[in-house]
Structures are given as structure tokens and as C-alpha cells.
Amino acid sequence: MRLIVAFIAAILTTYVIAVLGYTQLNLANLVDMGVSVAPGIRFDAALHDLVGMTGLYLPIISIALLLGFGFTRLVLIWLSELRTLGYIIGGFVAIFVVDLALGQLMGTHPLAVTRTTVGLLSQCLAGALGGYVFSLTSVRDEEAA
After folding, report:
1. Tally of domains within the chain
2. What's this model's pTM, rounded to 2 decimal places?
3. Integer distance in angstroms from the first to the last C-alpha of the chain?
4. pLDDT per residue over 10-28, tens digit each?
């Protein structure tokens, strides 16, 4: 049961951080164009995106992390002393690979912010943070396995 809770916590962490990064980077582009963005607008936009992207981006993140953490678990059979780092890297790479794959399938990056290095890095770091949360919260179940 702890493993399921840990996975849900990792998904939610990744999703929230990724969407907040997406929103704020998009708003930063508006500011660069000379548009004034008040703090209330930033908050409203973030809330709108957190709710609005659940139908598409949340499932994508969930599948990416499921595959990424599954692969990480296999690698950790031989490198168990690198457990925390493994899940951090696993989350980072999972988001990177899903963005790369979707970009190839769709002909462009599905999230506008991932067309820049900073935007892609923000999404991948969200995955890394999700991996860290998973590592911390799942430790007892995996040690028993």
C-alpha cells in the first residue's frame, strides 16, 4: 500500500511543479513582450492550468513515471546503494523521454515551454523531484521486497 501512496505522491508532486513551471514560464514570455502580469493574474493562471491540464498532462506524467520508475527498479537490482539518486534520475529521464517521444509523434513539442532549454529543464526537474518524493516515501516497501 505504501508503494501506491508513494507513486501517487510522486505523480502529484511532478504534476504540480511541472504545471506551475509551465504557467510561470509562459507568463514570463508575456512579460518579455512588455505585457504587465499582476500577481493575481499569475495565481489565477496557475490555478486554471492546474485544473485544466489534469485531463491530458496528468495521465501523461503518470504513464511516464510508471515506466521510468519501473525501469529504475530494474537497474537498482544491481545498484541498490544508489536508490535515491536512481529514482531522481529516473523521474528526470522519464519526463525527458516522454517529451521527446511526443515531439517526434506530433512533429512539435506538445508543451510550448519545452521548446526551450529552460522550459524542458523545468519539466524534467519536476520529474526529478517526483522521483525524490517516491524514493523517500516508498523505502519501507522496497526494502521488504
Report:
1. 1
2. 0.90
3. 13
4. 999 999 999 999 999 989 8
